[in-house]
Every structure is written in structure tokens, then in C-alpha cells.
Specification:
The strands form 2 sheets. The protein has a 4-stranded mixed beta sheet with strand order 2-1-5-6. A two-stranded antiparallel ribbon has the order 3-4. It is globular, with a radius of gyration of 18 Å. The protein is of the alpha+beta class. Helix 1 (about 15-35) crosses helix 7. Helices cover about 45% and strands about 15% of the residues. The protein has 7 helices and 6 strands. This is DsbA family protein. It comes from Pseudomonas neuropathica.
Length: about 220
């Protein structure tokens, strides 16, 4: 019987630590596969809407963070912290260029539907494209036409997604196993790592989850 590792990731598109954590997970998976080439890894992405009470049109990004962190100096410090962590995993994230803090309910609904309809490659492409829309392209993830255009660019039939884009700010309910802390990585349904932890921490959790699973399968 082939060995398996199930990874469940809980995330929101507007969280820079989720994108940074995605890169850390990718690095950990490369190392894990080198050590365990016979293990089949299945990764599932679960949306968590961090700010369900944002208005459907979103809020100006700068205003949102000034209110959240208290003053401009705190905002500058937080943005520098994010940039440094992003650069360490090969990402360029400049939060000062983002114009809108969007309501992500429809973005999550679109990703959930598209993940069910498309293949693994399309899902990964869509996930990357949605992150890029927010962090690099100044696109509004709360805009219906923007979301549909992104889906089309990933080869996904936009007509099959129309009914999940409500456009009314209805909160995204998400997965029953969702956690309020993102990013969150769950391995084989038991070991959980919260936050954009280094790849080595994720690799350690992956190895331990595999060991635990194999111990359980051994005859008493």
C-alpha cells in the first residue's frame, strides 16, 4: 500500500503571511519528496474569510490599516516586517501599493467552486493568480468581473462560477474544520502548525505526521 500525506491549509487571499506560508510549504514539500519519494502528498486549500464584516465594496487599504494599527508609524513598521519575510522566500510584496482592502467572500466562493470543477494544475494556477491579483496587480478581489476574468485566464469555465458570486457581501462559510488563525497547516488531520513558519518547521511536522500514521498501521 502506498504511503500518503494529507495536508490541509487554511488561508485568506488578503493575508500576506498566507502567501509567505505557501512558499514555505512548497520548500518543505520539495525536501520531503527528496526524502520520501514514495509518499503521495495531497494538499487541500480551505478558504477562511478573515474580515466578513467588511462592506461588499471593501475599504481603502491605507485607511483600514491606520484604523487597525493605530498610526502611520505602526503601519510602516508592519509593512517593512512583511516585506522582509517575503523577500526571504523569494517574494516581492509591497503593501503600500495596494489600494483596496476587499471583501473576499466571493473570491473564496469562486475558488471553492473552481477547485471542485477543475484539475489540480488549474487550482494551483488560480490560487497563485488570486494572490498575485491582490499583492502585485492592484486588482480588487471583491469585483465580480475581475474574479471571472482571473478564472478564465486559468482555463476555467466562468459560466460555471456565475451563481456562486453573490455580490452582496454574504460571508463565506468555509470549511467546517476552519480555524480562525491563518495560515494554518494540518497534517494527516492531527498535527497543526499555525503561522508562516519556516520550511524546516513544516518539514518536521510532515515527518512526524507520517511517522504517527505508520505507527498506527503497525499490528499490535
Amino acid at each position: 500500500m502506498s504511503r500518503r500525506l494529507q495536508i490541509d491549509v487554511f488561508f485568506d487571499f488578503i493575508c500576506p503571511w498566507c502567501l509567505i506560508g505557501k512558499r514555505q510549504l512548497e520548500h518543505a514539500q520539495v525536501q520531503f519528496r527528496n526524502r520520501h519519494p514514495d509518499v503521495q502528498i495531497n494538499t487541500r486549500w480551505h478558504g477562511v474569510q478573515l474580515l466578513p464584516h467588511l462592506p461588499v465594496q471593501g475599504e481603502p487599504f491605507a485607511d483600514f490599516y491606520r484604523k487597525r494599527l493605530g498610526n502611520a508609524d505602526a503601519v510602516t513598521m508592519r509593512q517593512a516586517q512583511v516585506q522582509q519575510a517575503a523577500a526571504a522566500v523569494g517574494l516581492t510584496i509591497d503593501l503600500s501599493h495596494i489600494e483596496t482592502m476587499p471583501n473576499t467572500a466571493d473570491a473564496h466562493r469562486l475558488f471553492e467552486r473552481a477547485s471542485a470543477l477543475g484539475n489540480v494544475a488549474q487550482r494551483e494556477m488560480l490560487l497563485e493568480r488570486l494572490f498575485a491579483a491582490y499583492f502585485r496587480k492592484r486588482e480588487n478581489l471583491g469585483c465580480r468581473e475581475t474574479l471571472l476574468a482571473i478564472a478564465r485566464s486559468c482555463g476555467i469555465d466562468a459560466d460555471a462560477l456565475l451563481d456562486c458570486l453573490r455580490g452582496d457581501g454574504t460571508p463565506f462559510e468555509g470549511s467546517p474544520g476552519a480555524t480562525s488563525g491563518v495560515p494554518s497547516f494540518q497534517f494527516n488531520g492531527r498535527m497543526t502548525v499555525i503561522g508562516a513558519q519556516p520550511a524546516q518547521a513544516l518539514l518536521g511536522a510532515m515527518n512526524e505526521a507520517l511517522k504517527e500514521n505508520e505507527r498506527e498501521r503497525q499490528p499490535a
